[in-house]
Amino acid sequence: MSHLPEINPASQRYYSAALFAGFIGGNVASFVKWGTENPFPPRMADRAIPPAEMLHDFGFHVSNMIYHYSGHLVNWGVAGVHHLFSLFFAMLYCGLAEIFPRITLWQGVGFALVITVIFHGIALPVGGWAPPFWRLPMDEILSETFGHILWMWTIEVFRRDLRRRCIRKGARQKPAMN
User: Fold this and answer.
1) Which of 91, 88, 104 is CA-nearest to residue 20?
2) Alpha-carbon distance 25 to 44, whole Å?
């Protein structure tokens, strides 16, 4: 019995379909993740926003990265970090799923939990952008976990559907070999 992860044969990998699905799913899922933050705010009201802190540490003037929409100030820098995060990890996930199908465990929930731990448990605290995981309020842990689960599940729905459609369309366009 092998303990190596299951690997798809190269002939069953469709990277262009995967990247397309990741791009579309990542865009939509970004809005899903933001949507979860309205009823379940991801941090205490008095704490800084991690993407804003990151941008500041990299030399960006976050207070200048705003636009007005419907009477509201929107920080496009913070929104952009979240959106690029979603696109990058959606495309990575979909690409990796072509090689390692087990990455889609529990319709992407397994990957979402790993991402939550890596970012909120390791990367943000190491960067000084958030407290260590054990010092986070339970509300924040639940909000981020729930948001990442819905985010990744949305990406998985797009991955599965668009991959199937792209492969079926590609098979119809190939001429028959005799």
Assistant:
1) 91
2) 29
Place of tokens 């802190």: 53
74's enclosing H/E stretch is: strand 72-75
Structure tokens at 79: 């929104």
Q: What is the three-class DSSP state of 26? A: helix
**Computed from CA positions of residues 31, 142, 108, 126, in that sequence, does the dihedral angle turn out positive or negative?**
positive
pTM: 0.90
Q: Which residues pair with 176 in a beta bridge?
A: none
What length is written for the chain? 178
* Among 158, 130, 148, residue whose Cα is nearest residue 17: 158
Residue 87 pLDDT grade (very low, low, confident, very high; cuts 50, 70, 90): very high
pLDDT score at 171? 64
Cα 96 off chain centre by:
13
